[in-house]
Amino acid sequence: MMKYSMVLFYKDYRQFLEQLQELGLVDVTISAWQANDDERRLVDEINDYKYAAKQLKLIAPDAPTDKNINKNLSVQQALETYKKANNKLAKLKNELDKTSKEAAETLVWGEFDTGYTEKLKQSGIALHFYELSEKRFAEFTALWQQKYSITEINNLGNKTYFVIAAFDNEKFEFDLAELKPPSINHAQALQNIENINTEICEQQNIVNQSIAYIDDFAAESLRLSDYLHLTKVTNSGEQTADGKLILLEGWAAAETQKDVEKLLDNSDAFYIKEKPTPDDNTPVKLKNNRFARLFEFIEQFYTLPKYGTTDMTPYCAPFYIFFFGFCLCDGGYGLIFLALGLFIAKKMKNAVVRSVGWLAFWCGLSTLLFGIATGSFFGVLLKDFKLFEPYKNIFLDSTKLFYFAMAVGIVHLILAMGVKAYSKAKYFGFRYALSTIGWMIVLVSAIASGILPYLGLDVPYGSEIFWGAFGIGVFLMLFCNSPGKNVFVNFGAGLWNTYNDVTGILGDTLSYLRLFALGLSGSVLAMVFNSLALGMSPDVPVIREIVVVIILLFGHILNLCMSALGAFVHPMRLTFVEFYKNAGFEAGQRTFTPLKKGGTDED
Q1: In this structure, what is the dihedral angle of CA atoms 535, 540, 543, 548, given to the nearest 10 degrees?
Q2: Rounded Cα gap, residues 54 and 578, in angstroms
Q3: What whole-number distance in Å separates Cα of residue 328 and Cα of residue 330?
Q4: Long-range Cβ pairs for the range 530-536 (8 Å, 24+)
Q5: Which residues contact 269 (CB under 8 A, 6 or more apart)?
Q6: Rounded distance between C-alpha atoms, residue 201 and residue 88, angstroms
Q7: Torsion from C-alpha of 571, 576, 579, 584, nearest 10 degrees
Q8: Cys bridge to 306: 337, 384, 492, 586, which one at CB 3.0-4.6 A?
Q9: Cα angle at 520 between 519 and 525, to 5 degrees?
Q10: 441 contacts 472 by C-beta, under 8 angstroms
């Protein structure tokens, strides 16, 4: 990334910014921007166009529209027409729900003249509406029929609906919950529903006709976004020399600097090119290969890396896939993810959705491999079959998975320290990486001295090789952690850092046991649902098979959803907490967003 400090005469300022926007390669630093009323209205208008285009795309495949419609409205008029019809449509649908409920309530009362009930009310006679079960109504009638005018109206679902006519000021001696009197009869309610449906059809037709303007709405939202971005940049210039000169700061990727400088040389701007410093708020633009790019959106759930530090995406991508498979740990579930991911990647048109499909494919492949390693397919253990009996000692059982999770955690953390050492050596000098390298030597020598004897190599903890490597590592940890400072400061800081590193590495390593726990729990739940399906099914032909299929489908879908959620979240946790912390990750502040035509990347 290259930094450009530019000075322009105020009369050339706007034209120069428009040239930069045409070029589309320079991220102009926007100072604290406070939107005025016009800009806030512009933001609302952009959102309206985006929302309209998005909603119309959703209904376009199924909406009957006239392909030869004459678009005689301007894009602004088309938007207002759509918004008005869409808002009215929403109100009509709410009104339809309300009227439908009202129709259901009036159904039990049959047809009656609402005008006549109003006349009765004016005469001082009120109708009271009630419902009771058939048995209670019979008891109620026997008790109160002589005293009150009780009229049975309807009998539905073992419930009796009845009316009592009484004077307005008459008090009842019984205690029953009175129903709300219907304001209209059932025929009127049905007529209201028909009228509302007619209006809905009219407004829906207007909305459908707006589908012809989808491209216009999308283009207008981009045009206004370009204008708003240009306005933000315009207002960010720092005025000096009584407003005659304007100072501007911009950033361009190193590979595009020739094109940027060609434009600057042909303009009236004076500029200075500099390399960014650690104190600069340098925008970040990630550069990864095709495989690692699939994982950028996961990494950005946390934050972007600071410019001048190492992008962790290439290191985290393979481990994320590995952790996902470890957590799900079933070959059958892996096949589902693999097939679903491949279908999305091949059939979907949206580039982002396709990338998610490829991510699901790789995660499904990892899960399939773990399922083969553990011998689990939809909770069925392969070692129980004679075909796989010779290989039952090869399958990873729960004990092996436990130690495997610990080993994976240690390798992941050592890799994180290696990335930290590499970053320090690259950006600050090799001596700044010595302390981290020392800590890696201590860990690797201790682990190697514990493992190598089992491989036939005589390098135990008490050997000269171990103590030599251990001593070098401790020396680097204690005396090389603060280059340039005296030996006592280095030693004190080294002791403190060692205490933090030792306690931290123990906690971080134990955190990887979540891989073992999630993988085991998913497999156990799958086996439980298999047992339930076979144990709860009746001994009736056909019905038994139907019940087994229903339980298996419900159980495995539920287990797959829960396990997949854990397999998605917990690898992120191991990445963002354990790996990032030990890799010395530093968060960035802003994304590289060049001033260009066609909207920003965020659009």
Answers
A1: 20
A2: 39
A3: 6
A4: 530/378, 530/379, 530/380, 530/555
A5: 6, 7, 8, 12, 16
A6: 11
A7: 170
A8: 586
A9: 105
A10: yes
Structure tokens at 68: 């030869």
CA distance 156 to 175: 23
pLDDT in tens, 60-106: 877 766 555 667 888 999 999 999 999 999 999 999 999 998 888 88
Could you read off the pLDDT of 247-272 as tens digits, one per residue? 888 888 888 888 888 988 888 888 88
pTM of the model: 0.67
Q: Which residue has the tokens 């495949």?
A: 61
Residue at 562: amino acid letter: M
Q: Phi first, then psi: what are they for 593, rounded to 5°?
A: -130, 90
Q: Grade residue 341 by pLDDT with cuts at 50, 70 and 90.
A: very high
Q: How far is CA 314 from the centre of its chain?
A: 21
Question: What is the three-class DSSP state of 568?
Answer: helix
Q: Which helix (H) or strand (E) holds 22?
A: helix 13-23
3-state secondary structure 472-528: HHHHHHHHCCCCCCCHHHHHHHHHHHHHHHHHHHHHHHHHCHHHHHHHHHHHHHHHH
- Let me know: does 193 contact 568? Beta carbons within 8 Å: no
Beta bridge partner(s), residue 125: 167
Average of per-residue pLDDT across 424-449: 77
Given its phi and psi angles, is residue 5 left (phi above 0), alpha (psi -120 to 50 degrees) or beta? Answer: beta
Residues with Cβ < 8 Å from 602, sequence gap 6 or more? 591, 593
Taking the C-alpha atoms of residue 238 and residue 586, their distance in angstroms, rounded to an integer, is 30
Going by pLDDT thresholds of 50, 70 and 90, the confidence category of residue 238 is confident
Taking the C-alpha atoms of residue 175 and residue 217, their distance in angstroms, rounded to an integer, is 62
Element spanning 164, H or E: strand 159-167
Q: Which of 330, 334, 299, 328 is nearest to 313 (CA)?
A: 299
d(CA 162, CA 153) in angstroms, rounded, equals 5
Q: How far apart are the first and last CA of the chain?
A: 23
- The confidence band for 453, taking pLDDT boundaries of 50, 70 and 90, is low
Read out DSSP for 26-93?
-EEPP-S----HHHHHHHHHHHHHHHHHHHHHHHGGGS---TT----S-HHHHHHHHHHHHHHHHHHH
